[in-house]
Amino acid sequence: MMIALYVVLAIIGIIVLLALIAPKKYNVSRSVQVNKPLEEVFNYIKYVKKQNDWSPWKKKDPNMKQEFEGTDGEVGFISRWEGNKEVGTGEQEITRVVENETLESQLRFFKPWKSQSDAYITVDAIDATTTKVTWGFSGVNKPPTNIFFLFFNMDKTVGKDFEDGLSQLKTILES
Asked: Which residues form a coiled coil (predicted)?
């Protein structure tokens, strides 16, 4: 009986320790240079529906169900999706638009697991005809689920998707 109690206490102790040392926050972003003026680039990226043309997730499930609410490119616009295992189910809501600077949105995932992240796309003029586009998202890993991130590299996994998407965005904008 006492051995079982010690085993249970040891397991609880390990879980608490892992939850304390596991990452509590994440931020993943990638950038690309686009050979187009900043205003032209921003006027394209501020519309969430256009992400269907360059998002790597749309390619992972071209048959995903989508639904839109509100005016695209404006605060309050919501894009909802329901897709396969790779894409999951969720929604993206525009929370802030600063013309020719940033588009911020909240990502709410419902399946395969529930989570919430803050997404952003920013533009910076390198010169009159070249724009740096940065795409990323950040959030909080709540204990004890943050233990998972000791074994899963969010930056490596999602970063590759961001690189693919930005490469496609560059191709579209420069064609």
From this structure: none
